Amino acid sequence: MSGPVVLQGLDLAALLCSRVCHDLISPVGAIMNGLEVMEEDKDEETSKFAMELIKKSARTASAKLQFCRLAFGAAGSTGAQIDTGDAETVARGLIEDEKTRLTWNLPRALLAKNRVKLLLNMLLLAGQSIPRGGELAVDPVGEGESIGFRVAATGPNARVPQAVPALLAGEAGGHGVDAHAIQPFYTGLLAKDCGLAVAIAGEGDAVVLTAR
Question: What is the pTM of this model?
């Protein structure tokens, strides 16, 4: 399959919902497993381990939901703005762990919601390029309401995910658009809506996404 991707609104919505559900299945499933262990095994050590699993998974699920609300959701009425400080908070909650750190160099400001959604989706793509962890750095490109973004991902074996450059450009790139591929495609749609062009490329030992 090649050429421009054409999706009806209902198909786009369904694929985005599938993507969000896929992200939440793992932590929610872990919570259920922990509860089952606590029900079946009354051993104090086992119950303590299960409770830690439940707490950790609940934090993960909450972080994913808060991030997805801004990155994929309506987040207010048409024409609404989002505080980049709120975007930073949800990004840190999702991304930062023992393997990955986030350097946020954007000034705090109110920006059009789709521009902030674009940034958060760029962060998701950048994170996928460093599967073993590393550093994500967010910098502004320009300033004011027309601001663009640069997101650099540095880490072991950093690489541009296959098919992502084509999907960002709205092309199938020889692959079908499923729940996994919809996110980079959606990122490209957001960039177009903001009047920006988004691209991804390797730069030395980093993978860099730019929207300008």
Answer: 0.91
